[in-house]
Design a protein that fits this description.
This protein has about 210 residues and is mostly beta strands. The chain is built from 3 helices and 8 strands, in the order ααβββββββαβ. It has an 8-stranded antiparallel beta barrel with strand order 1-2-3-4-5-6-7-8.
Length: about 210
């Protein structure tokens, strides 16, 4: 295009208005060239945000405990969630632990009042004995940096739409833990094992969605 302009300059030297009009015309033509950018996903995919605080209940070494956590991230077409998740022990009297990782969730027919979702969590966790016997709900809260482990947790949920942006979710999952050094000094009091940390969890949470930008 630059060479074309250079060739036309002598012709338009005495007619600056004509030359300026030509520049505007050619700029407009080239600006309307269709976008040929290749993308992994189709352009009609809607992306929104979804965040969910949750509480999990489970049994470790025969004692019932609760864990407070969250998950959330990008929701594609109100059906596929790609995000992060984490949680930390709240009330288990002996074993203190937590985790942080990734979550992948599929929501089946999310527009229905009552629907299902399935998910899998892949995360790294850590556990550490209480420095002192637990006497309050928030004793040693977050003080979990000790013996590390890897966990995989598939689960299924029943979901109830309360509004367009709020969904009540309840379900169960099975946590499989591996890689914990059971002889670590960090678990010398509880002697917690991979098998102890593995097991069934029951969860309840509230999904908070954000509509995609138009």
């Amino acid at each position: 295009m630059r060479s074309l302009i250079q060739e036309l300059k002598p012709l338009c030297r005495n007619k600056p208005v004509v030359f300026f009009a030509f520049l505007l015309l050619t700029t407009g033509v080239f600006a309307q060239t269709p976008d040929s950018t290749q993308t992994l996903f189709k352009s009609n995919i809607s992306v929104s945000e979804l965040w969910t605080p949750e509480i999990k209940v489970n049994s470790i070494q025969g004692d019932i405990g609760t864990l407070v956590g969250f998950y959330g991230g990008a929701l594609l077409n109100r059906a596929f969630l790609l995000g992060i998740t984490g949680g930390v022990n709240l009330s288990h009297p002996k074993v203190n632990y937590g985790y942080f990782g990734a979550i992948f969730q599929y929501i089946h027919k999310s527009s229905k009042l009552l629907h299902f979702s399935g998910q899998i969590v892949l995360a790294r966790g850590s556990t550490k004995d209480y420095e002192n016997p637990k006497s309050g709900l928030f004793d040693n809260f977050w003080n979990i940096s000790g013996a590390s482990f890897f966990m995989m947790e598939p689960g299924i949920n029943l979901e109830l739409n309360l509004s367009k942006s709020l969904t009540l979710v309840a379900g169960s999952s099975y946590r499989y833990v591996t890689g914990l050094d059971e002889n670590s000094k960090n678990v010398a009091l509880t002697h917690v094992t991979n098998k102890n940390l593995s097991g069934i969890n029951f969860n309840i949470g509230l999904k908070i969605g954000k509509k995609p930008k138009s």
